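**Discrete fold encoding**
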Amino acid sequence: MNTFCWILASGFMMSFIAFVGGLTLLLRKETFEKLILPLVALAAGSLIGGALFHMIPAALGSRFLSSIGVMSWLAAGFVTFFALEQFLHHHHCHRATAACKKPLGYLILVGDGLHNFLGGLAIGGTFLVDIRLGIATWLAAAAHEIPQELGDFAALVHSGMAKRRALLLNFISALTFPLGGIVAYAVSSQINTDFLIAYAAGNFLYIGASDLVPEVNKARTAKENIVHFFAFLAGLVLLFLIRLILE
């Protein structure tokens, strides 16, 4: 299978993860609440492990990037997602009224669509450098997408959307992921895309450390803290083992 097929297939596989939100309809609320934070901790470890064990070493090994260039693109990836949250996620309405809930649902979709496009662009760039790197990066991103899509679907339903409509629109917003991968492939014939590896690493570090870790630090009991710590550690170890296997 050639590189374009890998990018396209992985992009659509990531998009179909959007349907995982439907699982919230099958789970009791108590069960969902018990599962979501350990999954978030696992995703945090996977994202940070993907950045540390796969993307940053690969970017530093590029013939087209200096070490300062790698760190600059790493910072750019971090700052991009910080800005995305500042200008999209923080515009949520804090009054629990129907008038505020409906715009909130569409804001989630816009933010998620942009997030997925940038993710597809970055992960598409990793496939262009090395298929094995692309697979490892995709696995780390997928670990993050599962709890995020569960949360997004729940938020869309809470905003007043019908469940089927929420699933459909969430999937449509996820289709920007393969679009980003296709754009990365298209521009690769004109410019070197190695910088996208460092850019993706910055994305992963921001989401893992700034978004997800603070969420799992809100545990109320020592038992929950221990579970979250080991789930986070499992994500790190998983990506480290994948690095060893793929070498």
Notes: The chain has one domain: 3-17+31-246. The mean pLDDT is 86.
